[in-house]
Amino acid sequence: MSELKTNRLFPYALISPAIVVTVVIIFIPIIQTSVMSLFNYVIWKPKDNKFVGFSNYMKAFRDPVFWISIKNTLIWIIGTVFLQLILGFITALLLNQQFWWRGIARSLILIPWVTPSVITALMWRWMYDGNSGVINDLLVRMGILKEYFPWLANTSTALPAIMVALMWQGFPFFAIMILAGLQAIPRTLYEAAEVDGATSLQKFTRITLPMLVPILFTSILLRIIWVANSVDVIYVMTGGGPGYATHTLPVYSFIRAYKALDFGYASTLAILLTILLVIFVAFYVVKVLHSREEF
Amino acid sequence: MRKILLVLFLLIPVLMFATGQKETEMATVHFWYHFDNPESAVNPLVAKFQKENPNIQIIPERIAWNVYNQKLLTAIAAGNPPDVSQVKLWWQPQLVEMGALYPLDDYIKNWPGRDDIYDRIWKLTKYTDGKQYLMPLQMVILYMYYRADWFNELGLKPAKTRDEFLQVAKKLTRDTNGDGTIDVYGFGIRGARGGHDFWGTFVLSSGARFFDEKGNPGLTTPKAIAANQWFIDLYRVHKVSPPTTPNDGFKEIIANMKSGKTAMTIHHIGSSKGMVEALGDKISAAPVPKGTERYWTSFGDEENGVFAASKYKDAAFKWVSFLATAENNAIWQKASGQVSINKSNAMTPEAQSNRFLKATTDSADFAAVLPALPATAEFVESLWPTLMQRAFNGEISSKEMMEKIQELFTKK
Fold this sequence. Notes:
The structure holds two protein chains of two kinds. Chain A has 13 helices and two strands. By secondary structure, chain A is an all-alpha fold. Chain A has one domain: MetI-like fold (Orthogonal Bundle). Chain B folds into two domains: 177 residues, 3-Layer(aba) Sandwich (D-Maltodextrin-Binding Protein, domain 2), CATH 3.40.190.10; 199 residues, Periplasmic binding protein-like II (D-Maltodextrin-Binding Protein, domain 2). In chain B, 43% of the residues lie in helices and 14% in strands. The chains are: A mainly alpha, B alpha/beta. Chains A and B meet through α1 of A and α1, α3, α4 and α17 of B.
């Protein structure tokens, strides 16, 4: 092997383990899922497994649970990311102030983010518990509730209750990202604004927000993708119930795969989720890029 | 140097997926089970078995119960099942449909321990094609737990009929500390997965049948829909079960009994040890009440299946038959807290004086199983809990719920 050829192959050799792992654990399963979505593939009915074309997709469009899951997925993504963003923003602004225990505060707010999802879900499930939960206890003691309320067993409150739990888990990500962005804004901009007689609100809307747009753009994009794919917290807290009240598309896909063992239809739902997410993200990217040009 | 590094990096992916297999002359039996404390029963039994059978190695693998069914079926689909696995009777249709189980008739025919297992268990576990795929391991029959102290306080007796049951549950639902809110509920219903046993006790006993004697579906008759409505009303109208009912699973119904939140619930002898630890003599048990037509309670069971893909079927049978013999089965039940399948184990004085065992044996004549159909697994795992939660929350009617269940069982 010539020296030149070795030099040319060397970078490829270095990244080959990463490529092999990515192909094996990401690309091959994606292709398998796409293929499986075209089959009637119920694990315990091996004799009935056959190619059905786009029948599973047609079935999904006629399936009322699919549409309930789509609706819940949209509420889940928009609601959760919005709540996390607002709380994260407020936290970042507070942490950007000077106070003596700022270092400790910055470390403490990371706790929800580093807590494993299953622990978060179990913790909130017990806090919401309709018989002995601390949330009910506090609300009754404060006189807001007359008696304990089954937050996770009630159709109207189950999804919002989980969204609050996920807001708690995810807001530190926004807080840290936005804080980093705030600290990168040059002081001179604020000083110049002060010389021009700008108010605090004007400084916030004319300097802080526009300077944070790139960070907000990336953070929101990442959170949309993570939150949309999230199954663990919902599954541990309610199992997708009561009824279909907390069925989001990934939860529905998981239940079809691992409870009904209908891997063909579950794959279809997973592919539809991917398509939905790509559309959602593309729309978001185009919208944000467009608005950035306006700044 | 660079060339060496290059070769090494190119080899890494290959090495990552290379596995080595060690040939062994010993028959190796992989045994899947779900049991919380392996030290208490499985390990001593494995040691005992291996001492008696030095050429067989048992490799026990504990699988979490909530993922047991899906792990087993996916392992079979992937062509890599264990040699032996603890299974439930209602999984049998799916396992047979997959061609996963090995019929044990020829082995059992010559097995001396056969006559020490209750005839009814052999009958219930035989599959509809006439073959015996499963070796019995343990049994339970569901009964009603009740707070004997509160029954005495209010002058109540365990209900014999459905109507009596409602009256008793209403009386037990009360505000005991005078703060104006209910703090004890008469009946803890399991609205999440596994609660079909509660439903069966009141609905399948009062006019609803999956199929009648002629094989016609019978879940959407007026009587069946009314029986289901009666069950829904326990929560929605009479409010004799806690507000959390739709999401309450095994842990919640047991915790509610232990903490004094509920006065009655349905479960089996497996939870009696924990109940007695928490409540002592305050807890007792009785057979479930009769519906408008008959009694119905669930025969809960565990068997061991030998898999068709096993290379060591003889060794696998030796292990499952070892666990089904009286002496070893008694060791198993001591840890599981369930009931032995052996006639000889039921004769001990200890068994005779146990009030929970009495409630179990008193229910033996009417204990029943769900239909031996592949749809049963989906009914238990996902359809029933979803529909029941929706019905409890008023999203669907009793009729809609029963129609959906019937649709699953009659779907071609």
